[in-house]
Structures are given as structure tokens and as C-alpha cells.
Specification:
heterodimer; A: 352 residues; alpha/beta; D-Maltodextrin-Binding Protein, domain 2; 2 domains; seven-stranded mixed β-sheet; five-stranded mixed β-sheet; 12 helices; 35% helix; globular; B: 255 residues; mainly alpha; MetI-like fold; 10 helices; 76% helix
Chain lengths: 352, 255
């Protein structure tokens, strides 16, 4: 979902087009860490001393550089994994599909939050038993992410008025499915939706080429700051697709490969605990935590303080309502033939 | 090639056979996960199914139509302009920077600019592909004229031909072989840009649209079948140009 829908922050992908598109690269600290290790090994060799390295267990985690991954970025930067005695290598990918492909190929042990839950579920459907979700990132009326935006001076006052208007969303079947479902849920009959590059949604509104668009943050923040657009309605997926503005849209998830869980059974509880510390830190720190988006995403400058935070749910915090909300999302994709068959949400979750 | 072990008529099949063999080997040895790269047999079977079923025809046709439109625009603008520029070297030199500058600029990076001019209609995909192709066509046509054999031009002068007659009866014909090279390159480039535009601008149909959607839902069979279909389309367009080249500029390389 380069633009995906299912992911709680695809809209900002436009900001990341310059970042390692199509290829994976080590996160900012990964290279430095490897260099330090390499230097230490070299020093040991030169000294002629047998280097008995007490290697720390290492896990490689793939991420898509969007705001939804904040809990993971914070856990690394605040040293929570280090405290747990773990060496975590963060590897950046150009999109959630590439993360899933790397999971299938066994090149990474897991994925950070921000990776589209529908893409991960599809990966598990292709390779049954491939992975387990251990944390979701969600959006709703409190943790805002998804909006319908219109031009700043547009006379449109409600989604219902979008009938017959020119409406756009990011490219790809995921965006189209969600955008159409939102409009249908709001009572717009037979909606027509135009796909546009994510980076063109705001310019198209500014140029008057479209009347409204389905966007994810930080697009709405950028549109407001640049005096181009205003939010017509927010939390539209929760409201019009899931049925209630407070229902969480679990659009992204962090996961671990089942094989890696088995192979690293002794360290997985420590990893999950450290990850949960990252989640807890984000919850308690609010937007201050956004400082750790820098270096991992293209969000920086004064935008950092304005990007809304995702909600997070660790595997042991998921409720029956949460599972039901995720199932509803999966069922929508099955009904619209995006999924070839019905996929079940709850069995995908890690159990301690 | 009488001495060869393979009859010349089968030689064009060697490349595809090697490709399919290496592909099958990669999958059979599990060097690549079959979930991420299905075997050639499964992929070709799927390609056949969606072709017969009709769904591929819609996307194939949409891409072919856009490519054809882009190429037609590129030809109508590029050939006359290239010939005109090539007939006056000072004129060509004065715009050479622009041609080479834009020829080296990835057209896909100019998508926002094209959307500004051509709006969000389907035509912007055609326009950006035409832009990429027109530069290649123009460049080759211009060089075709500039590299015309001096002896022929001089012979025409000696026989008293005017500048216009020299241009019409010598330069224009001399430029055709190089122009055809430009047209062949141009149509391939137009196809590539159309597919890229369908993938990244967003579209309701077309091979690029099909590839990106299949990728998003991990339908790798359909993704590789669509990639094969795009390759087949490119190959057929090239074959068409080879045939045209042989008929139209039959003297090419022999004089």
C-alpha cells in the first residue's frame, strides 16, 4: 500500500518518496552501531587478544518510514531494547508490501508498527502461519489520522454534499476501496473516485481540479498550514466503515515471524517488554514523543509538533471489540474482492 | 548459420527459452520463495486464463491505446521538428542543451508539472509519455539530417539542385534510417512511461494499474502475468517497427 489505505499513515508517503525508494537501508543508528562493532573487533585482533565477544541476541525489524512506527522508533532511541540486552537492527523499506515480502523471504524477523495490517494479513494468507501481530496502531476520533478534506474556501459543508463532486484519493486498490466505502457509508450513491499520486492531492485541490479528497495525516496538517484545505470530516473510516467514530481502525500492526519467535523463544518476551515500553512512552509523552520521527521519517521541522499520535494496542491489551473492529475491516476487503477469501483477524495475534 | 546446431528459424526462441529455464530453475531450487516468485508454467497458465477470460484484454488495450496516442503525438511533432533542426546546425546547437537536458530528466519526476498543465484527466499519462518520446524522436531525426552523406549533398549541388530540392530529395531521405531508429526507441520509451504513469499517477485500467494493484494484494501470479503482457506488447511493437523499417527504408545500410 504505497498509498494504502489500510495503513494508518500512507498519506504521508509522499513525503518519503526520496527515501530509499524501492530498497531497504539501515536505520540511522544501525550503521554507526555496526561500525563501532567492527572497530572493536579490529582493535581486538590487532592486540592479538582472543576476542571473546558476548554477542547480544539480534533481531532485524523492518519498518515503513511513517508516523505510525513512532513507538518502535522511540523504543530504539530511548535505549529500551538495549536495556533489555537486545541488539535491534531497524531496516527501512519503501512500502508495506516490501516489508511483507521481506518477512516471507525470511530477510527480517519482524515488522514495526505502521506496516499495513491488511498487507500483513495477506502475507500470512499466502504463507500460512508466517507471522503474529503483537501490537497494532489505530486511528479513531481521538487518535485522528484519516480525513475528508476540501478546499479552504469550499462551500461544501458535509460529506453527503459530495455526490456528483470530483473526489480523489491516493493510488491503488486499497485506497480506492476505503475511499468508496467511506462515501457509500455516508450516503453518497455510486461514488466515483479518482486515483492521484499522494503528493498531488493537495495541489489538485489548490488548482481546483478536485472538490474533495480522502487523505491521511500529515496531509491534512500540511493543507491547513499552507492555507490550501480544511478538514470536512475526520475519523471517516471509523465512522462510516466501522460504524462508530470511536471504534479503532487498526490499520497498522507490528509483527514477528513465527519462525523467529520459535528460534528466539528466550528473548522474545524481553523484546515485547521493551517494545511495550516504547508504546507506554508515546502514550505518556504525547506529541513530545514525535521528536523520534526525525531520522526515521521525512517528518521534521515544525510539522513534528503537529502530527497526531496513533493509538497503540499491545497483544495483551486487545479486547473483543478490537478484534471485531479489525475483523470488520478484513471482511470489507473480502466483500470487495480485494482479499480472495475471508481472513480471520484474531488468530493472527501473538499469544504469550 | 548452416553450421550451427540450431536452425536459424528457431534462433529467436533461444532467448525466451533461456529466460524461462533460469526462471524455472530459480523456483525449483527454492532460491526464491515460490510465494514471491511463481514458476513460469503457473504464470503463463494464469496469463492464458486472464487473456481468454477477457480481463487482461481491457488493460492490455488501454495501455496499447495510450502508448499509441503518445507515440503518434511524438511522431507528428518530433519528426518534422527534428528534420527542421537538423537542416540548420546552428539552430540545432542553440536548442541542444534543452533537448539533452530534458532527455536526461526522468519523465516520471515531471508528473506533478504535467498534472498542473493537463489536469487529472487520463490525457496527462499520454502527455508525459509523448514528451519523453518526442525528445528521442526529434534527436534522432535531427542527427539523421546532420549526418547525411556529404558526397550526395555535393552531387545534388553540382547538378544544380536548389536548397529546397536538396532538402526534399536528399536530406529527408538520408535522415529516414536514423529517424526510424528514433521511432523504435520512442515507442518503447512511450510504453515504459505509460506503464509507470498508470502505476504511480493512478488509473482505472491499464497494465501498470493492474501490476500495482496485484502487488498491493500480493497476487504475484497476476503481477508477473501482467509484467509478461507488458513485455509481449513491447516486443510486438518492436517487431512491427522492424517490418516497417525493412519496407520503408529498404536501402538502409546498403548505400
Amino acid at each position: 500500500m504505497s498509498s494504502s489505505l489500510s495503513d494508518p499513515s500512507p498519506a504521508c508517503a509522499k513525503l518519503f518518496t526520496h527515501a530509499d525508494a524501492g530498497t531497504a537501508g539501515a536505520a540511522p543508528n544501525g550503521r554507526r552501531r555496526r561500525l563501532l562493532l567492527g572497530a572493536a573487533a579490529l582493535a581486538g585482533t590487532i592486540a592479538g587478544a582472543p576476542a571473546i565477544a558476548q554477542a547480544r541476541p539480534k533481531l532485524t525489524i523492518g519498518y515503513w518510514p511513517i508516523a505510525g512506527g513512532l513507538a518502535f522508533f522511540a523504543a530504539i532511541e530511548r535505549g529500551f531494547f538495549k536495556d533489555a540486552g537486545l541488539d535491534i537492527e531497524a531496516v527501512k523499506f519503501a512500502g508495506p508490501n516490501q516489508v511483507v515480502e521481506a518477512l516471507i523471504a525470511g530477510r527480517i524477523d519482524g515488522s514495526a508498527n505502521g506496516t499495513a495490517s491488511t498487507a500483513l494479513a495477506l502475507g500470512d494468507a499466502q504463507a500460512p502461519g508466517l507471522l503474529k501481530f503483537f501490537c497494532t496502531n489505530y486511528a479513531n476520533a481521538t487518535h485522528v489520522l484519516d480525513h475528508i478534506v476540501v478546499a479552504k474556501d469550499s462551500p461544501i459543508k458535509s460529506i453527503k454534499e459530495l455526490s456528483g463532486k470530483r473526489f480523489a484519493c491516493g493510488p491503488g486498490i486499497n485506497n480506492i476501496t476505503l475511499a468508496k466505502s467511506v462515501l457509500e457509508g455516508a450516503g453518497v450513491p455510486e461514488p466515483k473516485v479518482t486515483e492521484l499520486p499522494l503528493g498531488q492531492l493537495l495541489p489538485s485541490i489548490a488548482a481546483g481540479q478536485i472538490d474533495a479528497a480522502y487523505v491521511l495525516e500529515p496531509t491534512a496538517v500540511i493543507g491547513r498550514k499552507q492555507n490550501i484545505s480544511r478538514i470536512l470530516e475526520t475519523a471517516v473510516i471509523s465512522k462510516y466503515v466501522l460504524g462508530n467514530a470511536n471504534t479503532p481502525w487498526h490499520g497498522g500492526a507490528a509483527s514477528l515471524r513465527a519462525e523467529s519467535i520459535q528460534k528466539n523463544a528466550a528473548v522474545i518476551p524481553k523484546f515485547l517488554e521493551a517494545y511495550a515500553r516504547g508504546v507506554d512512552y508515546v502514550r505518556k509523552s504525547g506529541v513530545e514523543a514525535n521528536q523520534y520521527l526525525k531520522g526515521y521519517t521525512a517528518i521534521e521541522g515544525d510539522l513534528i509538533s503537529e502530527v497526531p499520535l496513533s493509538g497503540y494496542k499491545m497483544y495483551n491489551e486487545m479486547t473483543a471489540e478490537d478484534y471485531a473492529a479489525m475483523q470488520k475491516l478484513f471482511d470489507l476487503f473480502a466483500d470487495r474482492k480485494v482479499f480472495e477469501k475471508r481472513l480471520m483477524a484474531q488468530p493472527l495475534f501473538y499469544k504469550a | 548459420m548452416r553450421s550451427g546446431v540450431i536452425s536459424p528459424r528457431w534462433l529467436p526462441l533461444v532467448g525466451p527459452a533461456v529466460l524461462l529455464g533460469v526462471w524455472a530453475l530459480l523456483v525449483a531450487t527454492k532460491a526464491v520463495s515460490p510465494i514471491l516468485l511463481p514458476g513460469p508454467g503457473v504464470t503463463l497458465q494464469h496469463l492464458w486464463t486472464v487473456t481468454v477470460g477477457g480481463s487482461m484484454a481491457v488493460d492490455f488495450g488501454a495501455t496499447l491505446l495510450r502508448t499509441g496516442q503518445a507515440f503518434a503525438i511524438a511522431t507528428v511533432i518530433g519528426v518534422p521538428l527534428g528534420v527542421a533542426l537538423g537542416s540548420s546546425e546552428p539552430l540545432y546547437r542553440s536548442v541542444e542543451f534543452l533537448i539533452d537536458f530534458f532527455r536526461s530528466t526522468p519523465s516520471s519526476a515531471l508528473i506533478p508539472l504535467f498534472m498542473l498543465f493537463f489536469g487529472i484527466t487520463d490525457f496527462n499519462k499520454v502527455a508525459i509519455a509523448a514528451f519523453a518520446a518526442v525528445l528521442v524522436v526529434m534527436f534522432n531525426s535531427a542527427y539523421g539530417v546532420m549526418n547525411a552523406k556529404r558526397t550526395r549533398i555535393m552531387a545534388a549541388h553540382v547538378m544544380g539542385a536548389s536548397r529546397w530540392q536538396t532538402f526534399r530529395d536528399v536530406l529527408l531521405w538520408e535522415s529516414l534510417p536514423q529517424t526510424f531508429i528514433g521511432l523504435r526507441s520512442g515507442i518503447s520509451l512511450a510504453l515504459v512511461i505509460v506503464v509507470v504513469a498508470e502505476m504511480f499517477i493512478g488509473s482505472e485500467n491499464g497494465l501498470g494499474h493492474r501490476i500495482i494493484n496485484s502487488q498491493q494484494v500480493l497476487n504475484v501470479k497476476d503481477m508477473y502475468a501482467s509484467i509478461l503482457a507488458a513485455g509481449v506488447l513491447g516486443y510486438l511493437l518492436n517487431v512491427l517497427f522492424l517490418l516497417l523499417d525493412k519496407r520503408v527504408v529498404h536501402w538502409s545500410g546498403r548505400a
